[in-house]
Amino acid sequence: MVDPKIEQVVQFERTRPDVRGDAHPKKLLRAIEEDGDNLAKLSDQHIFSSDQFDRGTLLQLFRLAAKYEANPGRFSTSLNGQILISAFYEPSTRTRLSFESAWHRLGGDIMSITDRSTTGIAKGESLGDVAEMFNNYGDCVVLRDSQEGSVKEMMNALRIPIINAGNGIDEHPTQALADLYTIFKWRPDLVTDNPGEPLNLCLVGLPSKMRTVRSLLKLLCDFPEVFASVTIVNDFSREEMFAPGQLEQLEESGLKIHTAGDLDKVLPEADVVYINAISWEDNSFKEYGKVFHIDAKSPLKENAIVLHPLARGEELCTSLDGTSHNWYFSQARGAVFLRMALLTCLVQRAERVLDVI
Amino acid sequence: MVDPKIEQVVQFERTRPDVRGDAHPKKLLRAIEEDGDNLAKLSDQHIFSSDQFDRGTLLQLFRLAAKYEANPGRFSTSLNGQILISAFYEPSTRTRLSFESAWHRLGGDIMSITDRSTTGIAKGESLGDVAEMFNNYGDCVVLRDSQEGSVKEMMNALRIPIINAGNGIDEHPTQALADLYTIFKWRPDLVTDNPGEPLNLCLVGLPSKMRTVRSLLKLLCDFPEVFASVTIVNDFSREEMFAPGQLEQLEESGLKIHTAGDLDKVLPEADVVYINAISWEDNSFKEYGKVFHIDAKSPLKENAIVLHPLARGEELCTSLDGTSHNWYFSQARGAVFLRMALLTCLVQRAERVLDVI
Amino acid sequence: MVDPKIEQVVQFERTRPDVRGDAHPKKLLRAIEEDGDNLAKLSDQHIFSSDQFDRGTLLQLFRLAAKYEANPGRFSTSLNGQILISAFYEPSTRTRLSFESAWHRLGGDIMSITDRSTTGIAKGESLGDVAEMFNNYGDCVVLRDSQEGSVKEMMNALRIPIINAGNGIDEHPTQALADLYTIFKWRPDLVTDNPGEPLNLCLVGLPSKMRTVRSLLKLLCDFPEVFASVTIVNDFSREEMFAPGQLEQLEESGLKIHTAGDLDKVLPEADVVYINAISWEDNSFKEYGKVFHIDAKSPLKENAIVLHPLARGEELCTSLDGTSHNWYFSQARGAVFLRMALLTCLVQRAERVLDVI
């Protein structure tokens, strides 16, 4: 007989009441009407920057992501015969597995490169030649490189689509897409003709240096009416915390941008709290804002949701994990479906999953 | 024309008379009656320790493994749509490829992590958060980590099954399953109502430090009547060679445990000789028992079989490879089928392969 | 609305007028009659050296490669259920991805080993035991190892086929196959009963040290009538530039081998220019012939084609990329189809793709 003590250790539950961010993809599906035309342009584009998306394309991407999330196993052959080149020259497991999982879920094949030193680049091969090689071997590329200019250099020679999965301090567009997707899954009314109250967004991070923040702020520009206010919290001054032109772009879109240094003063009004502490600089990561910290005792609004691109450190305490504020795990789960939606469009397979195209 | 000398070099045989452990999976299939109920509990369990198996579950696992080994190509779609996260933070090719081959043979997809430094753990991410990430990206995890506590820490947060593929000096349960499976393929009568002579097992290794030995000894506890004696051979004293509680657990099960320091005195009575020289300590491997060695001249019983978890060094001489004692290559081959059986049950796909469930 | 400047950056073309080596696989398909018998011997051979191919087998391999290149998506299930072990112990992305892409395109599964230190070899495991392990886990092996003798040592114990993907300075047979395939796609008349003018081949490289050159020269021996002359250009003397026996093997086949030190004197007569600057010695790469260089201003014949095994450095200038001399990108593209053809035969799946066998 098996010792009950060991049984207790090895038994696990596959489903628990999901207090961590009830996803509501079906509500979002109903809130947005399908319009395949808005996805058509993605079939000949690289995904480089949040700047390249407009409102219509974003809504259709979110709708398709919600369709995938509501029907996880249904589209398992959509990418049959397609090969993804998964090139992560900067250490990452989270983003790499998120993309690879998305591609596998749709039935595609994958070739991984996880060590820069094994590539011809070590022999002095140009990125243009690496791109030409990729043209012959795969159908889509995902690239993370600490060297900011690599993805753009490859885009010039590529004849298959490439996704920027994080280039230095510059951008990480698919993370931002996943973040905004999560917000709309929580409040689908905001994309309908009958929206409820707009949101106060509190963003703890450094816009000049954190690529997830930079990419997200750009997307917010497409939905200025959704955000009553955007309050950026860090320990830099308003003059120093933005990259050149960044604040101007945000304000031109109609967003109300506030800045603050005291998090606990901002939290009581925040509907969405986004927090991040890490930026990728000089081939390594750097931490900012050590003084900022959220936990179960923070003065959060009762219905406030918390987002974090993960990996997290002490800035986001585990005491929040079991609360209804926790939408950061849902954010990570939804990111796979968002990437499924994007990848489907990039390799021209959208017609296999849309009802009308 | 092609130079006959080069033809001689490049020609190879796919099948040779299999002197290295005639597998007999079909005989084992006939010896055990199918009983799917005994596999049901595996569908909500992590695989952490040999302690969690009872006799009934073991026999059904061995039966299913034998079914796979007897019909290698038949079940090639059983794991369609399932994603394995293959995480090997400690150097390994043998065990990783064994698991990945098993998963591929059943039609599943794989994402590999072979470098600890590429994971968020390098950024200080907790194992609980890594587990939550795995929940979103895959359907099953296999983990080998020199840090003994990692797998248990992840088990707390995982909602998909994880297999401990070797955690420091602690356990390696699937290797033990493969070892016992091999013994029963050789002597299927021992699991019937009409067993022949029980076995004298000679085990060359260090129970306190070698995880393969620790896991195997636990499994023997479920079949005390199969083993007339278990003689453990190494250069430690009986007081020093066991971990706390280890010898007691073995003797409580009814096994007769002897210890010895002179291998050549034990071999003439041994039916099964299991030998291993390596343990994994402190993130590297350590060798024990340099004085112990088996070769074609060793005083083995005529029908004795030799097992080794591999990789081997000088303790198991290649002069035995071409003899009928060599069941260590069969052991490695059978390990793939054993893992196929286990993985099938863990991801709740057993109903696709069992006749009655 | 999206800023047109960013749209310009992210938009790309999937197809451009292909000035870089119009592939003509269909012309080659028509030029060679199918004869499956000539491929039969490959089903029980390792691929070790260019020496093991004869003319008949080469023509059928090229025909099958052309069939794949002319119908890229048609045979996507030919390797269903087959597992490739992709072992690259020497840094490589180009060759590894070329093989893995080929295997994926035919519907097979892959297990990759890219770090020698993770294998049992680090524990002192013999290559014979590694081979025995591969026998149990996969159906085909591709190996690149800077240690020249590894592939032969494994061939002795393997019961599944292995392809030498580059062993030190010795050989790289599949690269040579891809090179000759490219030449015949350009001039398919040369393998018919009614060939046009034979070719002057100019080969910039070091036959004694460059494995791609060594393997290619051997294949030329099977088609002496195709090459009016072979002129090898480097900065070594005729006595020093060949390995022992190398020049004799070439001359015995009927090839006219010239040597020269002044590239610009040879180019005006060359129909095919092959250039390479790198050899793999002592676990690292070494450059030769820094003085030799081709660019758009070189005195090339109007219809001359340029080949390079890639990766390239300054010896092959990017100014040639947009010219009709550029057949090196077509060479890389064709290499995938050539490998698809070879792999199909090795794992005994040719009957799934040939019309008559």
Automatic annotation (TrEMBL), chains A, B, C:
Record keywords, A-Z: Transferase
Top-level taxon of the source organism: Bacteria
Domain Aspartate/ornithine carbamoyltransferase Asp/Orn-binding: residue ranges: 199-345
Positions of the Aspartate/ornithine carbamoyltransferase carbamoyl-P binding domain: 45-183
Entries under Pfam families matching the protein: OTCace, OTCace_N
Keyword Transferase: yes
Protein family according to the UniProt entry: Belongs to the aspartate/ornithine carbamoyltransferase superfamily.
Name assigned to this protein: Aspartate carbamoyltransferase
Organism: Lacimicrobium alkaliphilum
Taxonomy of the source species: Bacteria, Pseudomonadati, Pseudomonadota, Gammaproteobacteria, Alteromonadales
